[in-house]
Amino acid sequence: MSDTPTPPLRRTSLHATHHAHKARMVDFGGWDMPVQYSGLVAEHMAVRTGVGVFDVSHMGDIQLRGPNSLAAVQKLLMNDASKLQIGQAHYSAMLYDNGTFVDDVVLHKLGENDYLIVINAGTREKDVQWVRKTIGGMGGLHITDVSDYYTQIAIQGPKAADTLQKLTGVDLSAIKNYWFTWGQVCGLHNVMIARTGYTGEDGFEIYIPSDEPTSARVWGEVLNAGAEFGILPCGLGARNTLRLESAMALYGHEISDTINVFEANLGRYCKLDKGSDFVGRDALVKIQESGGPTRRLVGLEMIERGIGRDGYPVFDATGMRIGEITSGSPAPFLKKNIALAYVPMAFTELGSEVFVEVRDQKVKAQVVPTPFYKKPKKAQPVAELHVPVS
Question: What angle do CA 126, 129, 134 make, to 5 degrees?
Answer without folding.
Answer: 120
